[in-house]
Amino acid sequence: METQTKATNNTNNTTMQETTAPKKRSKGFVFVLAALVIGGGAFGITKYIHGQHHEETDNAQIDANVSPVIPRVSGYVKQVLVKDNQHVKKGDTLVILDDRDLAIKVQSAEAALVTAEANKNAAAASTAAAEAGISTAQAQVSTYDAQIEAAKVNLWRANQDYERYNNLIQDHSITQQQYEQALAAKQTAERQLDVLQKQKAAASRQTNVVSSQSAATGKQISLADAAIKQRETDIADAKLIQSYSVIIAQEDGVLSKIFVQPGQYVNAGQSLFSIVLDNTPWVVANFKETQLEKMKLGQAVVVKVDAFGGKELKGKITSFAPATGAKFALLPPDNASGNFVKVVQRLPVKIEFDNPNDELVKQLRPGMNVLVDVHLD
């Protein structure tokens, strides 16, 4: 009997324990469920309120000005004076090209200048000789004028003697020989005057020829001056092109990886490497078009940098891109096609930092990922 009674009691106790346990577990579950509902509701309300006053995106990166290093002339690389990631100053020499062929062109231009100057000197000498010839010809003309005047006097005297002897021969007051001598003297004076007049005419023509030659040589001097200026310009151009064989940094900044080595042939216009300039970086955030309704210029922005453990930097919106990123793509989508699928577009927004001198800002590098939170109020 005692054994049966103990068995009955054990059975009753087990039944009571099984009945009490589910009640305790159901109460804990209710408490947990209530806490989750309250917590989820609070989180949802907080997010909703935050979403009414903020716009966020993680599609954002640091950007900065990048200047490509491009040679202006083609040639073989002689020296590379910089290394990867090196900081350079404006005017520092980066790469030197072999300029021997360019130096030859400079020498050729200088030789052409010497030739042009020699041509000018020759033209000047010719002009001086022509001017001396003009003076000589004019002196000859003057001499002929004096001789003509003397010949005219001789002719006048010969005519007078002839007229007198002609009257005397009629009266047989003189001999025939005397008459013939007077006639011969008259004819000789006439021929002498004629010869002198022709010589003067020839000398006058020679003076005109020499004057024309002098004018021509004077024009040659002008042409020589123009040629000299052209050669001087050629020298300046050749020296300028030669100076392009030394490639220098156009701005302060940090170099990218150097993709050129000594002995390599580079073409004019070929990008060798790049310089990330030392000016202040900024953020380009690509917001969905549905996020832009309340965004305006000047709104405050909090930027969290992934590379520095989410440290925050303050900035502001300074500009909106004129078109979505898809419009600037190499192969933009053609929405006129029949298989059009509507996709939410993103618009790049530029954000500048409030304190560009912040040490953290100076450590930023283009391409770093950031989280952007725009305060809409």
Q: Tell me the span between the first and last alpha carbons.
A: 85 Å
**Using only CA atoms, what is the Rg?**
55 Å
**Contiguous uncertain segments of 5+ residues:** 1-8, 14-21
Class inferred from helices and paired strands = alpha+beta
Q: Mind summarizing the main beta sheet?
A: 6 strands, antiparallel, barrel
| Overall geometry | rod-shaped
Number of strands: 14
**Given the structure, what is the number of helices?**
4
Series of H and E elements = HEEEEEHHEEEEEEEEHE
Strand content is 15-25%
| Helical proportion, percent range | 40-55%
Strand order, sheet with most strands: 1-10-13-12-11-14
Mean pLDDT: 82
Question: Notable features of this structure?
Answer:
single chain, 377 residues, alpha+beta, six-stranded antiparallel β-barrel, four-stranded antiparallel beta sheet, 4 helices, 14 strands, disordered N terminus
Give a structural overview:
The chain is of the alpha+beta class. The protein has 4 helices and 14 strands. Strands 1-10-13-12-11-14 form a 6-stranded antiparallel beta barrel. Strands 2-9-7-4 form a 4-stranded antiparallel beta sheet, with no helix packed on it. It is rod-shaped, with a radius of gyration of 55 Å. The two termini are 85 Å apart.
